[in-house]
Amino acid sequence: MVASELRRQLASLLVVRASGHRRDSQRRYPRWELTNDELRSLLEAGVGGVILLGGSAEELRLRCEQLRSWAQQPLLLCADVEEGVGQRFEGASWLVPPLSLAKLHRREPERAVALAERYGRCTGRQARLLGLNWVLGPVCDVNNNPANPVINVRAWGETPQTAGALAAAFVRGCQDEGVLACAKHFPGHGDTSADSHLELPELPHDQARLEQIELPPFRAAIAAGVGSVMTAHLSLPALDAQRPATLSAAVLDQLLRQDLQFPGLVVTDALVMEAITQHYSSGEAAVLAFEAGADLILMPADAQAALDGLEAAAASGRISPERLQSSLERRARALSRCWLPELGGLQQDLSDLVTPQERQLSRELLELSLERRGGQVSASSGGVNLIRLDTQLNCPQLPAVAPALLRPLAAGFQPTVIDQRSPSPWSGDPQAPLALDRLAPGPVFLQLFVRGNPFRGSAGGDEPWPQVILQLLAQQRLAGLAIYGSPYLWEQLRELLPAELPAVYSPGQMPQAQAISLEALGLAEAPLEGGFTD
């Protein structure tokens, strides 16, 4: 075998990051998103997969066509669309976070499973129409740690039974549409309190405990035929005291391949995450992951260095021809399972991208997960609409015409938005932490957009919102409360509220969730808003 053939084969097992926009100037995250020249060069050299983020649904379709035209082989084109394709690509369905179905599963398990399957089918169908053939979901982690900063509402359940049943239903729905699903993050990232995007978390459990809590949802997804499994960047000393799970043969080969008998693709979590880059070079991380049992190398910090490392390891015999061939065959089998259009074959009219049934699903999920108490918010001629945003960049949940801005404004509440870029809202007084002297006078309608998010480093429980509620109540200034995201924050704060005080909770943060929530508090659609109640 000549070196160029070997390098192309190894390149086919890399998955690199690209913007969903077509132009270099539109990249939102240039630290991770390659330029078009770099992308084209890598695809022409044989790189076999691309993960995409950003842009509209229409742009994504054009981008997928462009990437396929640059490649010499069928591509795996994927996205992190755990909450529907609209979570990342505007114009498609943005669904409630998966954890919102967990409570319904306790009450009505059959209905919850049916909805999770529809959720997967909606995600798979829309992904396919836009050119994707691989969805990086479902999250199979059991979120049994409310302080988990990175999984949180992304999980399908807080118990193994619920997480497994709903994740498996999502897999069936998604893959019935000809799109591969991906169970993540193996062997389980739910019971951690650190964010692997920023550091290496530790899961301090033995295999007996893994069998009881962490592994059942992955077993359920495998039984449902899931096409791929993604690794977790975490330390699991009971199985491997030296290397994180992503780089551990004890975890990937022994536990996943042999013990759980998983026959499909094993893909690393993004190797650009600091849990890996703090300790390993791009080349060594790629080689160690492949040696451990990974088939696909996702988002190496330096794609060329990763490919150089793999090529050197294969040339030296560190990676055997048989080991390489097994991964190539698994990739080929995965591609044979999913939809692969001909170049130029994406012609369906996107006016039907979101069907009436999918619109109904989106609203049904939001209404089922909505919780409210108290009366309705009274209009005020001089109120404050105090909005706390977490650190999601570009803030797609709060466009200029968001209901959370316009509906309270129509009722007399002027918006004040605080996020990490804002001056500190805190007074320094632990009993009265909100600096009320920095706010305009009048009643305060408080809206909290708080949930676990990658790169945030916390699940939102590190700010003194209970004391803020008591402070505002003591001054008789709290006009109402809306929480979007964390069920744990809602459970903490609702107990502090008088029975008559208007309050609402939605696990969703998108504009449609705001519209339905605020409607429940008597804040009707405002002029200029529109479009968020479908």
Say how many strands there are.
14
Quickly name the level 1 CATH class of the largest domain: Alpha Beta
Under CATH, the homologous superfamily of the largest domain reads Glycoside hydrolase, family 3, N-terminal domain
How would you sum up the major sheet?
Answer: 6 strands, mixed
Q: How does the SSE layout of this entry go?
A:
Blueprint: H1 3-11, E1 14-19, H2 36-44, E2 49-53, H3 57-70, E3 76-79, H4 100-107, H5 109-130, E4 134-135, H6 160-175, E5 182-186, H7 207-214, H8 216-223, E6 228-231, H9 249-259, E7 265-267, H10 274-277, H11 282-292, E8 297-298, H12 303-316, H13 321-337, H14 356-369, E9 371-373, E10 383-389, H15 403-410, E11 413-418, E12 444-450, H16 465-474, E13 478-485, H17 487-494, E14 503-506, H18 511-520
Parallel strand pairs: 1-2, 1-8, 2-3, 3-4, 5-6, 6-7, 10-11, 10-12, 12-13, 13-14
Antiparallel strand pairs: 9-14
Overview of this structure, please?
The chain is an alpha/beta fold. The chain has two domains: 10-354, TIM Barrel (Alpha-Beta Barrel); 370-520, Glycosyl hydrolase family 3 (Rossmann fold, 3-Layer(aba) Sandwich), CATH 3.40.50. The protein has 18 helices and 14 strands. The strands form three sheets. A six-stranded mixed β-sheet has the order 9-14-13-12-10-11, with helices on both faces. The protein has a five-stranded parallel β-sheet with strand order 4-3-2-1-8. Strand 10 (383-389), helix 15 and strand 11 form a beta-alpha-beta unit. Helix 1 crosses helix 12 and helix 6 (160-175) runs parallel beside helix 8.
